[in-house]
Model the fold of this input.
Amino acid sequence: MKTRINRGLLVLAGMTAALPLCAQGGIQRQQPPRGAMMQKRPVPQNHFPAFKALAESLARQFEVRIVVDPAIWVLAKPKATEQAANVGIALDQLVAQARKATWKKVYLKNAQGAAIPPEKLGESLRAVDIVEQTGIVVESPALRRASTVIKNYEVPANFNQELEAQQFDPDGIYVIYSTAPSALAGKSLAERVSEMQRDSMELMMQMDDTQLQEAVQKGLDMFMNMDPSLRSKFMGMQMRAGMQAFMNMPPEQRNQLMQEMMQFGQGLFGQGGPPGGGNRRP
Done:
């Protein structure tokens, strides 16, 4: 019973933003301010083309090759970087204007760089970033081949000579890439939130009562530790978006959802509703 109540409360909390207020004796719709439901938030625009153009300008200025991962999202129109002493400083200034992005210098086999698409380079760098071991060698005995990743390798004084000895291009390529997980990279903000919500629901269904309580408590602690003004803004955004989404549902789906929620509430709290709600007047 305890598990059922905890899961029920969590589902109810998650649905709060999507459902109108319910009172004993019937359903009452919360009336938003006039015109509020008709206001639409502007659709975020990805300023990636302008960002890429600035990167290409830096490549020409410093006479280097710069590759930009198309999975990068740039929410605001980027500005040209200030005069920088070297390409590294210029890239730092540029990358700071993107969301969840960084840059690395990559060395590839001679003539291989032109054949690898930027998105593949981005995926490779994200894969290297999540390797936790300082070094790892993966062997395929049947093919007598092995792949090696050595993290935090100290660059020696003769680094260029070592690269050339292994047939790598010592000039290298500067790669600006998204640090978002590969499953989310290149997707819009709405798609990212949807993916995370789906993953969250799948994880919840795998939790026992203790794990679920711990997760909910951490979420509440994080929420209460937010700046009060930011917390209020966050709640308002969720309530407005949830109400709008609920009202945009087809009538039959909306009615079905309301009936299921009311049945769920009656099964959870009984016919009298939540504790303390028995004396509420319609």
